[in-house]
Design a protein that fits this description.
Layout (H helix, E strand, L loop, with lengths): L40 H9 L7 H19 L3 E4 L2 H8 L5 H4 L6 E5 L4 E4 L16
Antiparallel strand pairs: 1-2, 2-3
Length: about 140
């Protein structure tokens, strides 16, 4: 009778597969931290089976940033101040905090005509947008 495989605790299992390279198909780091968007490995497999092509998130963020900046310049404004959670999500690709923001608005984004973008967010929650190099 063969011995069953020893029990492996979750904490001892690899969470990051080093054979996948340093970037995923969508251009983000292969750190198994999908707070940016959230698809799981199951979703990636289903999309691949369906023949769907993954978006390049870095290019998408760059496109949105350039588009917004160009509209600011075209109108002769010094900048754009965003308070609406959906506008913040579009401009920064940061985590959607609509529900948290419903009662007490706490987030804002300033996009200057020179392209400099800053987000005001929870003091102890830099993970909400630190993954995006366009946000300072």
């Amino acid at each position: 009778m063969a011995n069953p495989a020893p029990f492996t605790r979750y904490s001892q299992q690899r969470k990051i597969d080093p054979t996948q390279g340093d970037r995923l198909a969508d251009g983000l780091l292969n750190d198994d931290d999908r707070i940016e968007i959230g698809p799981t490995q199951l979703a990636y497999k289903e999309w691949e089976q369906a023949g769907l092509i993954l978006p390049d998130l870095l290019a998408m963020r760059e496109y949105r940033w350039r588009r917004l900046t160009q509209h600011i310049v075209d109108r002769g404004y010094g900048g754009l101040l965003l308070f609406d959670p959906l506008n913040i999500r579009y401009a920064t690709d940061s985590t959607n905090m609509q529900l948290w923001n419903t009662h007490n608005p706490f987030r804002a984004v300033l996009l200057c005509a020179d392209g400099y973008m800053v987000i005001w967010d929870y003091k102890n929650s830099p993970f909400l947008s630190e993954f995006n190099p366009l946000v300072k």
